[in-house]
Each structure stands twice: as C-alpha cells, then as structure tokens.
Amino acid sequence: MIESFRLERVEYVPKTLKPGVLYVAAEFDIAAHLCACGCGTKVTTPLGPTEWQVSDTAGGPTLDPSVGNWQLTCRSHYLITGGKTLWAGQWSEARIEAGRNAEQKRREVYYTARAHDRKWWVRLGRWLRELFQ
Questions:
Q1: Does one domain contain both 8 and 61?
Q2: Residue 68: how many CA atoms within 13 Å on its side-chain side?
Q3: Is pLDDT above 70 for 118?
Q4: Full-prediction pTM beyond 0.90?
C-alpha cells in the first residue's frame, strides 16, 4: 500500500510511474499515479473545473474528489489529502451509478452556463454593469 504521495509537475506523464508520486501535466490537464492499494495499476485523472483538482499543500498534494477505482480488480477507493492516503469505504453498484450521474449533471450545468456566458449580449451586459458601477 502507498501511504503517502509527493507532487511532481511534468511536461508529459512518464511511461513508468514511481510509487508515491502524483504526476501532474498541467498543459494536458491530467494527473497520474500508481493505485494506492499497491496493485501497480496506472490511475489517470483528468483535471478541470468539472473533474479533479490538484492543490499543493505544505504536507503534500491533495487530489479532490476521491479516487474510486471501480473499474479495476482492486476496486480501491481513497483520497490523497495533504500528501497522505486516506482510505474511503467501498461503494455499492447503486451508489457508484448515482455518483456517476451526479458528476454528469454537474458537467451539464457547468457547460450550459459557460455556453450562456459566451453569448455576446451577456458579455456586453456584464461589461456595461462594470463600466457604470
């Protein structure tokens, strides 16, 4: 089991990963690490406003939200918080499905709002409000 992680910022995620290293390739909005259970499987997490977020704290990296490796044989579920691995409980198939549906709903809400913000009259209205405040 991998009990702690350190952050390594890279241009490209290496082909061979080291245990206990959370690799972040910011240009490609991706993080990768070896599964914390020790099974040796490469786990990749997309980074972005509707995906995972990485922060670098004094104790080490934090990857939020949790990592649920439901598609892997190990089915591990954990958080990487302040450089430490915190184990989370197993989820039922129903809870996994509900979590996936909630993620999809968050994405839809986010991208619908973004599409609305790109409309020229919305931007113009914001600009005018800022101008006359």
A1: yes
A2: 14
A3: no
A4: no
